[in-house]
Amino acid sequence: MGKDMEAELKKRFNVGKVSQAYGMTETTLGVLLSPYGGGKIGSVGKVVHGMMVKVIDEKGRALGPYQEGELCCKGPLIMKGCVGDPESTRNTIDQEGWIHTGDIAYYDEDEYFFIVDRLKELIKYKAFQVAPAELEALLLTHPSIQDSAVIGLPNEDVGELPLAFVVKKPGKDITEKEVEKFIADRVSHQKQLRGG
């Protein structure tokens, strides 16, 4: 949950603090956890005791603070493998025992982690990678849009075209062309909503 959504949640439910955590089925439990009473806004917290977490680039090199890459985890909470499926295990857990989550993240100087996107959900438009989360966050800044989702529409010529689904705010009206123009005016050429 990003900073803006967390702030909206606090406002809507009139709560002072929101604590986030991060985990997945393959990690058994949460491997990142915000301190009791809340951590940094928009963060999923810090590494839990006994676990190791790193952020890597496309070549598998560990990245430093504020550098975005794939989140990887290692430790006693990680699954041993996919039962009866060694190929899936090899595609998920590397030879050193790190599970590759498929989530794009970064950490700050205080070692708080922030999830920013999904590696496997990136839209491939020509040779460019388009992050759906970036377009969704931008769409949510429009005064007539309450919610949004962006996916890749398969296209033989270019790979995928960014396609947006939006929910209008009650009492507001907006056309498809207005949504497309709103995005086109704010993003680079490859990120435009060519899928509609």
What can you tell me about this protein's structure?
This protein is an alpha+beta fold and 196 residues long. It folds into 2 domains: 117 residues, Luciferase, Domain 3 (Luciferase, domain 3, Roll); 70 residues, ANL, C-terminal domain (GMP Synthetase, Chain A, domain 3). It has 4 helices and 11 strands. A 4-stranded antiparallel beta sheet has the order 4-5-6-7. A 3-stranded antiparallel beta sheet has the order 1-2-3, with no helix packed on it. It has a two-stranded antiparallel ribbon with strand order 8-9. The longest helix has 11 residues. InterPro entries: AMP-bd_C, AMP-bd_C_sf, AMP-dep_synth/lig_dom.
Question: What topology does this entry show?
Answer:
Blueprint: H1 3-13, E1 21-23, E2 30-33, E3 46-47, E4 52-56, E5 69-74, H2 86-92, E6 99-107, E7 113-118, E8 123-125, E9 128-130, H3 132-139, E10 145-155, E11 159-168, H4 176-184
Antiparallel strand pairs: 1-2, 2-3, 4-5, 5-6, 6-7, 8-9, 10-11
Beta-strand content estimate: 25-35%
Order of helices and strands: HEEEEEHEEEEHEEH
**CATH architecture classification of the largest domain:** Roll
**Strand order of the biggest β-sheet:** 4-5-6-7
Instruction: Specify the CATH homologous superfamily of the largest domain.
Output: Luciferase, Domain 3
- State the CATH topology of the largest domain: Luciferase, domain 3
Number of domains as seen in the coordinates: 2
What do the pLDDT scores average to? 91
Shape summary: globular
Gyration radius, in Å:
19 Å
* pLDDT < 50 stretches: none
Total helices: the number is 4
Indicate the percent of residues in helices. Answer: 10-25%
Could you tell me the number of beta strands?
Answer: 11
* Most strands sheet: 4 strands, antiparallel
End-to-end distance: 26 Å
Structural category is: alpha+beta
CATH class of the largest domain: Mainly Beta
